[in-house]
Amino acid sequence: MSERTQHRMAATIDDQIGHGGALFWRRLSAWRFWTAIAKWLGLIVILLMYIPLVWLAVMSFSGRPLSGIPYPLTMEHYDELMGAFNKWGEPLYESVAMGVVVGIVCMIVATAVGRAMPRMRKPGGVILIALIPLFVPGLTMGAALFISVRSFLDLRLGLWSIFLGHMVWSLPFSLLLVLIIATRFDHRLLEAAQDLGATGWRRFWDIEFPILRPGIVGAGIFGFLLSFNELLRSIFLRGSETTMPIYNWTMTASHQSQVPIIFSLSTIILAVTLPILGGFFWLLFAKLDRG
Amino acid sequence: MTDSAGSGFLDDLRAGYTRMFSGNWVVPVFVAVWVVIVILPLLVMVAHSFFEMKNYQVSYDASFKTWNSLIDSGRWIAAVRTLRVVLMMTVVEFLIAFPFALWLAKTCKSKVTKAVIITLLTIPFFLDPSSRTIIWRAILGKNGIINTVLMELGIISEPMEWMLFSEFAVHFGMLAPYFPTMVFPIFLVVSLIDDHYLEASRDLGASKLHTLFYIILPLSLPGIVAGAVFTMVPLMATWVEPEMLGGGFVNLLGPSVEAAIRNLKYPTAAALSVFVIIVLALLLTLLILATRRLGSIGDVFQTLRR
To answer: Is the ipTM of this complex over 0.90?
Structure first.
């Protein structure tokens, strides 16, 4: 392109804003710190997510955990935590068990529905219905389920109602994960397998499953993780049950004296889960990037 | 068939599985169950907002009494405050997330950095909400680390008490948790914008800001709308942050719903929740109408697909 045309083009764009204004905008966009500002503001917000976690770990060793200074360092909260195992052992076990069940059910349902949806002629409506819980705040969905189950149907709340709330929350995410991969699945592969004499089971297990596996595994892991830390729905649907997030909530919200124990408990849980989470997502995103 | 390893039971299991999964009934059954456990409860809740409590029992006479009492009891102040907090936080998150997503999608060339940042943005979805919020008390509080350090350094003589149990604390505590939901959709859409469009714009003599406003912004509208929605939805009924960092001074709708249920005022909780959903629907409609002026979202998908 000749320089003259280039100038004329620039002039056309400038005309839309007025010449004086355009010069201002041109100078403004030439400022070389924009990129740095964009990058660092975002990174600072990410830091705001992780600094509290580090501080949580530091203060769990502090003699005065709600004060500003970590010193004197002590292990007493961890001793106390071990002594109080009968209080938090049950909620931890309940959360792990619930997470495993929700994860497995999510995995199965998301696979069954996720692989059937792309074969429909118009899956849009079904996808929209499946994703409704993403557009309803957790507390609101919890209240709706609570009012229906407790007040309207007059049923006893318990683990089953927590399970219901967790499924409503986790399944849309699991389904999305399977759908992302299932929509790209080439169904001619299955026809080819059928022509070669493979049974329905072999077609699924030897061809479809290996291809969908990242989505299926992801669905299970998301189901577990989302259930393990779910608070906003469980708080209404708990009945007399206590999961880990509910325990943490009640201890931190209403018993100031219990806060140090929660610090140490959260630190232990973070020390176990953060590396697993980090490793899992690292592998996932590194793999996605290559693929 | 080639499959001879299975015992009788396993064969039955596989045959059953094949029948189960080859059928066309999976999706209809799923939709039916989903309607029962998601949509029906929401409808029951809407219905409940027109009932009232009498002697700790819901009396099923439809009326507007609960709705009227909401207005009379001054809960609309909490509603207005919630709306203000939600809009404020959504705008702030957008202002930080949009440039950051641009940088992450287009400027950041290192794949390792990208993967690390995406990982760091994903992990917060899976952290316990109470423990990661309560720790702010030890940071922002009267005897917290910030006040202690500033007083030791002699920068302030009195601890700054506005940092905790205030609207500032609630806003500040929500900044990081609601950031990823805004970044991800924008990042995904901006990643899809063909670099050739940006080069063409530059070749035609547009400044970077022109490219930003006339090319990138219109093309990333779907991501912006999605980011705003997924940030607004949880914000509208946020509960942990105002309870823990507001210290009872920041009365939002989320805590009101929880308090109403705790006090067995189910119709009140229902009405407040329905209100939350109505406001969200209105905000979403406004958002789509506003962005339609800038460009049709359908056109954007056409352009991105090319």
So the answer is: no
